[in-house]
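[scheduler] slot 2 assigned
[scheduler] job type: sequence-to-structure, two independent chains
[scheduler] chain ordering preserved from manifest
[runner] begin chain α
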Amino acid sequence: MSMTDPIADFLTRIRNACQAGKEEVQVPASNLKARLAEVLKQEGFISDVTRVPDRRQGLLVLRLRYDERGQSCIRGLKRMSRPGRRWYVSVDQIPRVRNGLGVAVLSTPRGVLTDRQARRERVGGELLCSVW
């Protein structure tokens, strides 16, 4: 069975694991998902990413971060661009997520970048998701 939106599946698995209080979550691997996970790690939303080979495409194992009260560092995830409605933005149109407390993730010609990195490099692209 083919999946129509693997990025939405990736975000939903993370969202469900955070709500269930899981330590880690496994998602099918791809280069885009691996880069997206690295961006989440750089921004402090997850603590570690490892790629585990299997007989198919491999798995990404994400270790989730929680604060001292046991609440997830990820308060929300939202898929912005989707297969039925792609959302491309120029550098001037990149939205601020929760007045800078969250992060928007873009797929640009220079790779997968956060909103701050894209503004700094003066490049736009496809708005993949926002995380806060």
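[runner] end chain α
[runner] begin chain β
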Amino acid sequence: MTETLSGTYVPSAMGWVREQVETYERTGGREANALFDTGIPVVIVTMRGARSADVRKIALMRVEHQGEYALVASFGGAPKHPVWYWNLKAHPDEILIQDGPDPVRCRVRELEGHERAEWWDRAVAVYPSYAEYQDNTDRVIPVFVATPI
């Protein structure tokens, strides 16, 4: 049985995000499984909205280690956290990660200290632009780890 979150799904207002999520899900990850033409793999993250409780979906860089996934709230180095950061904080037990054909229910937690540094290094190894994003902002870019339940 495929894991889902109940509730109203509200697709991203950003057309390219909406299209990538829809194509990835429709093809079980065979298509739209990379960031544009970079070849860098992505996963689909399904979450509940912090205030609305609506179901939201985004594509994030695939940073996997021993069955867990880093979710990096870089927002391209913007001065504030992406909206989805607050969704994860509000509903850490209502997360699905899709890395291939089937989503898996996960719990997330924000990392600190040595553990954050380890996962940050893994994330930068996958997507070197994260280091540039950190250089461009005064905030410490949050890193969550998603652990299958």
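[runner] end chain β
[qc] chain β: The two ends are 15 Å apart (CA to CA).
[scheduler] slot 2 released
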